[in-house]
Specification:
By secondary structure, the chain is mainly alpha-helical. It contains 15 helices and four strands. The chain has helices spanning 2-11, 17-26, 31-44, 54-79, 87-103, 109-134, 138-161, 175-182, 196-213, 215-225, 227-232, 237-263, 274-284, 296-315, 322-345, and strands at residues 165-167, 185-188, 191-194, 265-267. A hairpin with a 2-residue loop joins strand 2 (185-188) and strand 3 (191-194). The longest helix is centred in the last third of the chain and has 27 residues, at 237-263. It is globular, with a radius of gyration of 22 Å. Residues 1-13 have low confidence and may be disordered.
């Protein structure tokens, strides 16, 4: 028996070190987004040299940061095999609540932000509980939540404030400290970099640590890979799912707060679109729609790719309508590449 094993080992084809390294790289969920970032830079850098200037970089990061904050939260949820179409409208609704509490009730900015955060988490809890209790598809549950919040926000803003736009927050107590936390900027050359970049980095680091270094992350992968089997093995599938929906709700609140402080008000016009973009950057980042596989770092890279492509098309003088076609092409390539990566994952260990 030992002789047979030694003979088989001697005759088995050996892969080169370069091939083994390539296999390990292709087993990483974020490799598609990394390649995509390199691709769009190669395409647009020669046509739009300003893209690599401090001004161009600041604009790219300004576009990518809020999308990345939502993208990493949605990526966690996708790994668990769930969707959230309400994150964008939660951003609008929570910022509207903050603005109304300040302008109509006279609350300080920080108490108003605390109340709106609790309300956003309440929406996330309702989404999560409905999904786990009813076992309805999360796509449909959060679509219903989106419609309720969309119509409710428009109706409340018009009825209470008399307009779909609420302003006048700059005189609220605590406004200056809120600006320091959510609206600070730093000038570097021609570019003005916003604090949303810091929040994006923190969100990416936190979600990546949760996914890859904690027991909670193992539960997320198990929930998305085989939820029924995971539940039978004692994995807290229900608790994990609800916590993930709380996470996307918190990300929505943060995105709304960043916009609220930046503009000094809120424009209530929630429309289905941003939610799809969060899912797109997560998929470009390596998340599979079937769950059980993905990366929050990849989602962050997907948001960066989005920002580069959008700003690159503008600086290169292309018709802006090409952006949607370009983004769709990148998504298709990412889906195909993810299929290849997933097949290799079954043969190549992650570490």
């Amino acid at each position: 028996m030992i002789a047979e094993r030694l003979s088989h080992a001697a005759t088995a084809p050996r892969r080169s070190a370069g091939r083994r390294l390539l296999d390990r790289l292709l087993a990483r969920p974020s490799v598609g987004a990394l390649l995509g970032v390199g691709l769009v830079l190669l395409i647009f850098a020669p046509q739009a040299p300003g893209l690599l200037s401090t001004g161009g970089l600041a604009t790219v990061l300004d576009v990518a940061a809020p999308l990345g904050i939502g993208g990493v939260a949605v990526a966690l949820l996708l790994v668990a095999g769930q969707f959230d179409l309400s994150i964008g409208v939660v951003a609008v609704s929570s910022s509207l609540l903050t603005a109304l509490l300040v302008t109509e009730l006279g609350l300080g900015i920080w108490p108003a932000l605390a109340v709106s955060l609790v309300a956003a988490l309440g929406v996330g809890a309702v989404n999560g509980l409905l999904v786990v209790i009813t076992e309805l598809p999360s796509f449909l549950v959060t679509l219903a939540t989106f419609l309720v919040l969309q119509g409710g926000s428009l109706a409340v803003a018009t009825a209470v404030a008399g307009s779909s736009r609420v302003t006048g927050l700059a005189q609220a107590p605590g406004w200056e400290s809120a600006v320091a936390v959510f609206g600070a900027t730093a000038q570097l050359g021609e570019g003005r970099f916003r604090v949303s970049l810091v929040w994006w980095v923190l969100a990416t680091a936190l979600t990546s640590w949760l996914l890859w270094r904690t027991r909670f992350g193992s539960s997320v992968f198990a929930t998305g890979g085989a939820g029924r089997a995971a539940r039978e093995l004692g994995v807290p599938v229900w608790r994990t799912t609800v916590l993930l929906f709380l996470g996307t709700a918190a990300a929505g609140w943060l995105i709304g707060t960043l916009g609220l402080v930046r503009l000094g008000g809120v424009q209530v016009d929630p429309a289905l679109g941003a939610e799809i973009e969060f899912i797109i950057v997560a998929v470009i980042g390596g998340c599979l729609l079937t769950g059980g596989y993905g990366s929050t770092v990849g989602a962050a890279l997907g948001a960066l790719l989005y920002g580069i492509a959008r700003e690159g098309i503008a600086l290169a003088g292309w018709d802006p309508r090409w952006f949607q076609a370009f983004l769709g092409s990148l998504l298709l390539v990412a889906l195909l590449l993810n299929g290849v990566v997933r097949r290799r994952l079954g043969r190549v260990p992650l570490s």
